[in-house]
Write a structure and sequence with these properties.
The chain is 47% helix and 9% strand. By secondary structure, the chain is of the alpha/beta class. It has four domains: 230 residues, 3-Layer(aba) Sandwich (Rossmann fold); 59 residues, no CATH class; 53 residues; 83 residues, Arc Repressor Mutant, subunit A (Orthogonal Bundle), CATH 1.10.10. It is found in: Cytoplasm.
Length: 529
């Protein structure tokens, strides 16, 4: 066992906690003869291809990838792992998405499997195939290592056949699990099997007239009113989503899956179905859902959240991974205001990492974000500081920002510090779209005016080394001399009067970056307003 594997035995970061539970599961199954020691450990995430991949898709895959890597480190890489991303593309199309071209042309295809619906974009053989391609492209841009699996292919190729035949044998047991969870009206029509109509090709929600377990066949009333008998194999039938969850676990030998809190009530059902079909349910992890700025659950239909594309327009993807890593079992607000904080927290963790001892490094989020190999990143200017620099410099392009940055950090350039260069572009875009429209400058009180004028005069006469620390000390001293009982009020006044916002970075750091003379001029202009 390597030193890193030993450290992983006691690491407190949540991916390691899950990895240890998974390791315990594997050892138990090996001892019981239920698996070979070198059988791959299967991680799974699911995707509904009726819509585009979204921030929840990213979160589920990035978090599962973190657990997978933690498990590989814990076990010293001796046990192979697989990450399956399965698309539920045999589901019937319940409604036509309003965003597709010529949506009226898809109306006749309602309730047909998504992989039987024509592709309105004209790029793939079906709507389901198009959305699956979008999923893979989405995951590939982040470098995830995964195996894509199509539910349609599993049903049609026979991969699910053994479990479907077993489900026919265990039909009554499955019904005994499902019926108590349904209302009386739904109980009367419920079946865990959803046949594909021989006459219309639609996914049917109809009761079974007969289930022949010996033959592996079901009989039901088709849409044309006639009795129809189909084998449960060969893609003729799919399962209702709750039994399908458990069946999929059994058929694919899934060892680990995480899902949102909206699945928590149904998780015991999934597990019971898997057990009925002869498979130990996987280790499971329930994460909290994101909230919008009003504390309401984010919903794709409401459009009250942030898309991955929107986040990446203003910040690097590592900051989004950090947001997903932190406290996954706590409901967090996900809206545009959280982006700058996430960026600076990522930079802080990245800066600390090289100087931490190995045990501490395993607790650092960047270890998990970068699969144990975080880059060395020297970013001498925080994102918050860049935002405030943009606010006062009002640059037309990044090169103007670099004029200030290079004076503040002479060793830095766009070529030597590409991450900082990207952050400068993000800051310009974020400031333009979110900070500028909300800016409200206020006039200083008489006390504040006197203090700010004093600060301006001292900046003009400043002849020491203009380091952030020296300028912060001077600003602090001025506030104290002008009898601000709570110096937070003094700094808050500087932000509100000079920058038009209630919060900002350390004022000394800002003055050092913007320049002492420029900062004095900024104060004078604010006083003249």
């Amino acid at each position: 066992m390597t030193d890193l594997s030993l450290l992983a035995q006691s690491a407190k970061a949540w991916p390691f906690e899950l990895a240890r539970a998974l390791d315990k599961r594997v050892n138990q199954q090996v001892k019981a003869g239920q698996r070979a020691a070198d059988d791959p450990v299967v991680f799974e995430t699911g995707y509904g291809p009726s819509g585009l991949p979204h921030i929840g898709t990213f979160g589920e895959v990035v978090r599962t990838t973190m657990v997978r890597h933690a498990f590989e480190v814990l076990t010293g890489g001796k046990i192979p792992t697989r990450l399956i991303c399965i698309s539920d593309d045999m589901d019937g199309m319940r409604k036509v998405p309003p965003t597709v071209p010529n949506p009226e042309k898809l109306e006749p295809w309602l309730q047909k499997p998504l992989t039987a619906v024509p592709d309105p974009f004209g790029t793939h053989e079906s709507y389901g195939a198009h959305m699956n391609a979008r999923l893979c492209a989405f995951l590939d841009q982040f470098g995830f290592q995964y195996e894509f699996v199509s539910a349609t292919e599993c049903y049609k190729s026979g991969r699910f056949d053994p479990m479907l035949l077993r489900a026919a044998e265990k039909f009554d047991e499955i019904m005994a699990v499902m019926l108590p969870t349904l209302g009386a009206e739904r109980q009367a029509t419920y079946s865990p099997f959803l046949p594909i109509s021989p006459s219309t090709g639609r996914v049917l929600y109809v009761p079974m007239k007969h289930v022949d377990a010996a033959k592996g066949e079901i009989t039901f009333v088709d849409e044309d009113g006639s009795d129809a008998t189909l084998p449960v194999t060969g893609g003729n039938v799919k399962m209702q989503w709750k039994p399908d969850f458990g069946m999929r676990w059994a058929a694919l030998g899934v060892d680990f899956e995480m899902f949102g809190k909206d699945h928590q009530a149904n998780a015991p059902i999934y597990s019971r179905i898997a057990k009925i079909l002869g498979h130990r349910p996987p280790e499971q992890y329930v994460y909290e859902l994101f909230l919008d700025d009003k504390g309401e659950k984010i919903s794709k239909s409401k459009g009250n959240g942030i898309s991955v594309e929107e986040w990446l327009a203003y910040a690097p993807d590592e900051s989004l991974s950090l947001f997903q890593f932190q406290k996954p079992r706590v409901a967090k607000k996900l809206y545009f205001d959280v982006i700058p904080k996430a960026v600076d927290e990522y930079l802080t963790f990245l800066e600390k990492y090289p100087d931490e001892d190995p045990a501490r490094q395993l607790e650092n989020p960047v270890w998990h974000i970068h699969s144990g190999n975080p880059p060395r990143a020297d970013v001498p200017v925080s994102f918050a500081l860049l935002l405030n620099l943009v606010a006062v410099a009002n640059p037309d392009d990044k090169s103007q920002l670099w004029g200030f940055i290079s004076r503040y950090a002479p060793e830095a350039s766009a070529e030597t510090h590409p991450l900082l260069d990207r952050l400068a572009g993000y800051a310009m875009r974020y400031y333009r779209d979110f900070i500028l429209p909300a800016k409200t400058y206020r006039a200083p009180t008489d006390k504040e005016r006197a203090a700010m004028q004093d600060l301006s005069a001292r900046f003009k006469a400043f002849d020491e080394d203009p380091t952030p620390e020296n300028l912060q000390t001077l600003t602090f001293a001025v506030g104290k001399e002008h009898e601000f009982e709570n110096l937070r009020d003094w700094f808050k006044a500087l932000y509100e009067v000079l920058l038009g916002q209630a919060q900002g970075p350390r004022f000394g750091s800002f003055a050092a970056l913007y320049g002492v003379e420029n900062t004095a001029r900024l104060i004078d202009e604010a006083m003249a307003r």
